[in-house]
């Protein structure tokens, strides 16, 4: 905990079993924090009437003796004791950090006073011993870091760990003893360096997975290698394959007796058939394409019973689910029901993120810009001249949202890209023939006991027929262009078309997604059949939510982009 405003880290901390907090209590405290516009940390401080780390010394009995009817209403006696203990430890840790005490001392107090260490010791199982051994290794790793970096501090150490994890190393896992456990160890190739096992399974041996497509190499290259690349005039792509080949070699040579190489023609729900990895051809020294001709099908393992995966909150805990849904909520559920549970049931706040800020900036800019166009067409307030590119860019600067960028350099880079994107939009997509009727039109549709709310970016008039306005609805997207198959499955514009006809009385004759980054306009299918399907699917999702089906649907791509990957037990990263 080096950043007390990091809500996901705070959730992870509070979810530790040692504090005995139930999901119900977490939800209540989280709701209170949101109502009062406080972070979870600030809410706890407020309830316990303390300011951690501000005063030189808070008598511990002041934390322990707190009497607050709200605390008693939300928490049971065990969790009051648990949270009190947590706050006491945090107070002491914050003062120690300020005092520049060694990290090992701070961590030891945490694992000991919280009961975390003892909970594993008392388990007397192989898992418990393994956990204790890992904690021990973690201490050693910190000690070594402190020795190598005497002027460093806890913040830099956390950056160091994050960096290690990003490049596939895990400094906190007791690697050496992995070999001794009679169990299946799942490791990254980076994480397996220096280890050996009787049998090794190298998986994902298909093109674009291993070797991976991702060429962003955050590990600095040794100078000799850069020289080798320059000498051999190697392209960036060739250098990437070389690096992946080295990794493949590391993975393959971990096996003492048996090495299994595995690959599949199809992964998950993907429709595209995969090709075998180039490394399979190389290591087997034969053409493996023929052997790789499996039909798509499901592999099942007899006798395996899947882990219960439908909800974090036990079914017996009563919770009040939302009755009002927005498109983005349903979209989150479609993406991964477990993500929906984190975001809209437990309401663990997501980090401010650059894509969200950028999207808000661009949507507000285009709204203001088209308002100028609309005003000029209607001749309101004497404005008749149409808006210019300069005005568009001025509005962009005015609407710029700063939150969520990694640093000023990142922010400036994104801002510049956005300017280019809008210039392209103005030159290629914008036309002063467009007649905007409504901008950012909000709506609510009733569906039994639930409601569905949305906001339509733009509704343009195409023509009028017998007094009925025929319109086109437009939705701006700031992300990458979606695949045709995904656009076909998309529920958003068919649902919006239903609303526009039912509530506004227009006739929707077309609907378009505009992918701004790539300057592409894509027509959506809003046929009657599609609208019915979209409505059916929406009702189905709402039913699943009511039935509390929040199973995880992990995949590398989704989890890689998910804020909850650090707390989700099913995350694939
Ligand atoms: S990490 Fe993956 S599985 Fe977990 S909630 Fe996020 S998307 Fe779903």
Automatic annotation (TrEMBL):
InterPro entries: DNA_helicase_UvrD-like_C, DNA_helicase_UvrD/REP, P-loop_NTPase, PDDEXK-like_dom_sf, PDDEXK_AddAB-type, Restrct_endonuc-II-like. This is Uncharacterized protein. Residues 130-264 form the UvrD-like helicase C-terminal domain. Keywords: ATP-binding, DNA damage, DNA repair, DNA-binding, Exonuclease, Helicase, Hydrolase, Nuclease, Nucleotide-binding. It holds the Pfam family PDDEXK_1. The keyword Repeat does not apply. Gene3D superfamilies: 3.90.320.10, P-loop containing nucleotide triphosphate hydrolases, PCRA, domain 4. One of its GO terms (cellular component) is DNA helicase complex. GO terms for molecular function: 3'-5' DNA helicase activity; ATP binding; DNA binding; exonuclease activity. The lineage of its organism: Bacteria, Candidatus Dojkabacteria. Residues 325-569 form the PD-(D/E)XK endonuclease-like domain. It comes from candidate division WS6 bacterium GW2011_GWC2_36_7. GO terms for biological process: recombinational repair.
